[in-house]
User: Fold this.
Amino acid sequence: MTIQAQYWVHEPDRPPAEQVAELTTAEDVRDFVTLLADQHISDAILTHTKRPRIETAIPDENDPSAFLTVPDHSAIIGIHGERGAISYKGKDGHSTEPVQLYTRGQGPDQTVLYETEEFPPDCEVPTGALAEALIEFLETGRRPLSIRWQRGGEA
Assistant:
């Protein structure tokens, strides 16, 4: 199984450079979490490549008889220092209804921005817990249950 991670490298006096990493092992995941803690690396958008895809109404330029597809889920991970958070939207492999959830931890007391999304207060967990959750996601293709989740706006 594979998680595709899209992130950006920010170097002085240069535009952000998009990078894509293929995470296929637990060691890849742990190394990636360490990489995200670097101040020159942005938060990441994650896609599990074995999750189902959903057909859109957008025609496929390469095959006029087909339509483009998108993942049935969206996940964002970000790290600030020794803590970080994950959001998970869409089908999660546990129920038939889509979810929109954020990690539940301790702090900060206010909303925090990861990628381009506002995460609710108390969304941050230690980076070790994030790595273990991503390893579970890699191995199962489902939203990890090894960490606690909350809906946006919950206190």
